[in-house]
Amino acid sequence: MKVTVLINPAAGGIGPDGEMRMRDALGELGLGAASLVTFDHDAAAAQMRALITDAPDLLIVWGGDGTHRTALSTARTGFANLLLLPGGTMNLLTKWLHGHAPWHVTLRAVLAHRATRVLNAGQVGSDLFFCALLAGAPARFAQAREDLRAGDFGRAMRDAGMAVEAAHRLHLTADAGPDAPLPAGNAVAALVGPLSRSSRMDVASLDLPSAVAALSFAWTTLRTQSRPLDGVVLHATDSVTIVDPEGMPVPAIMDGEQVEVGARFTVSYQPEAACCLIAAGTEPGSQPSEAPRG
Length: 294
Description:
The protein is an alpha+beta fold. The chain has 2 domains: 3-119 and 273-279, Rossmann fold (3-Layer(aba) Sandwich); 132-254, no CATH class. It has helices at 18-28, 44-53, 65-75, 92-98, 103-112, 137-149, 153-169, 211-223; strands at 3-7, 35-38, 58-63, 82-86, 114-124, 127-129, 132-136, 173-175, 187-191, 201-206, 235-237, 239-243, 251-254, 257-260, 264-279.
């Protein structure tokens, strides 16, 4: 079997010894000849397209939610032999796909009995997300948290300052149609997949009163699979248009990664946007059974 593994060593749960650990795990499974490739952040989509064109029997992507978003956005439904393994700090999507099992347990379970899961997504322009889009003040705070995790304290202080400013300045409007009334506020969230509580896309708009509230909103939404905050009303919709009336670019993150969306953009729900592998019989959010060792 032709196996390729794309590893992002910058992801929070992998580190510099990730390639060695993956090589050891593959060797135990009789896949020691697998090709291991280091994730190229500067040319991620092109790298992913090249790996798909090479047509492996199994393409493993080991990284965090952002790495997985890149892989799924490139593969879409045109490549079914894609396995996402958790290697980040939040791992929202892979926890929903595989449960809380360690990556090596998931790998063994999928190799023993694989199945395909089709994923819904949200879309802005040509970009897809599979968990959450956060626009407004929370996006700035989430970016500052990532700066701290990466050890860039100077940039974290700068982004935190911009987040406080955004919490006071931003007054976004969000239009999801007459059936989903959304108030103006400084934060908008669009939730799909593991964070959605409907069969569509859930959206919420609110005015967070302080920097602490904005940080709490960003952390809770991206860290847990529960409603963002008590009292927040989620509306199921297929489309929402977000606008900064002052014409300033709206800060936004998709699945934990900062993206540029402009001062006005539309988020649309995309059912069956991509697919990937899971262990056969695994339900969303459940734990795969570890296959017996030979």
